[in-house]
Model the fold of this input.
Amino acid sequence: MTRSTRTTQARRSDATRTAILDAARERFAADGYERATIRAIAKDARIDPSMVMRYYGSKEGLFAAAVALDLRLPDLAGVPKDEVGRELVGHFLGLWEENEELTAVLRVGVTNPAGAERMQGIFRDQLLPVARQACPDPEQAPARAALCAAQLLGLALTRYVLRLPPARELTHEELLAWLGPTVQRYLTAPSP
Done:
């Protein structure tokens, strides 16, 4: 096999993987984990279902690859302590508005053990370290991060998954004004 042939095959392989992941993200976001099928994802990607299995091994493997999320959380070191809550809420609102993968992960996380495990990993690996930056007592960081997650995921559930009209109608600034102080209190207020 020539170098040119290997390069061409690698490009096709990369293009196939990209097509599969794009189709999977859309299908998981639209249908949720349980209803999304390998067959439907393969059809959307215009490939044979066996190719999905070849690259990802299982539906769980495909889901894990499709939702490898980096929340790109801000470094709070340069943020004034009294603005940390507003900063995090604004960051999450921006993510939810631009990223359907988060909606897919949330839907799956509440209905499937693999999705719940994925959400727990995101919490542990990404949100908890940010909470540790702002929390006055390192021992309380996990509980405080969990309270922040409850607030932010609750908003996401009502606004982006359930699409409750009152939650959808709140403006970005209104959400910052309502939720910023709550998240701020969870992170930095004295322990009750």
